Amino acid sequence: MASGLKSSTLELLKRFNRAFPQFYEQFVSSEIQLQNLRLAYRLYKTKRAVIEMKSEGSKSTLHFAYRNQSFLLSDIFGVLAAYGLTIHGLSLYGQIRPPMLVFIKLLVSRGSKALTEKTAENVCRAIREALGGRFEVEEMLAVEFNLDAGLEQVQTDFYVDPVFHLPALVIEADNQPGLFYKVMYAIWQEDLLVVNANLLVWRGRTRLILCLLGPNESLIPEYLGNRIAEGVKHRLLSP
For residues 96 and 148, is the Cβ–Cβ distance under 8 A? Predict the structure, then answer.
């Protein structure tokens, strides 16, 4: 827990953290905890998704905060794919108790460079429009990608994470255009809620570890998790 804070802020932070999985307070830095609390306060005051982009050297950082819903990641990654952005890093922390907020940080680039101010504004606007149902992600993506084509060399596995004590789905596939969107679209089709995410890109392969809640924000038993893993793999491989 962060030191040097007012006792009232510390108490507020403790209450805020109780909505997250057990691991959150132990493994997530105090700086990120405080940042997420500030984002939650902005969300509370404005009643709108927090979507902002900042340049950091040769890359840009996208911060996002909103109430977690199964379609969110599909929309966000769909917009990023539509704008031809490369994803270098991903962190995601979602609450498992009301108000079920989710906080996402994405490290992206375009043509190996940080986004221009105009492109960053357009991406943020497109994400907001997609969340409001006014930006048809699939229609825009269909111009750039064959959305009917399956991914190649996909592997999926389900387990209950021994540290986080949450159901987890591992998805590994060859790097290819639209990969993240197709993965998140498959997650949406299974009506799953992502509450933590880790990303590893290595030697032409992408590995995603997603901690999940099932339909109606429920825990997923192992027998069902194995069926979900097979279902996601089938959706990703099928043309």
Answer: no
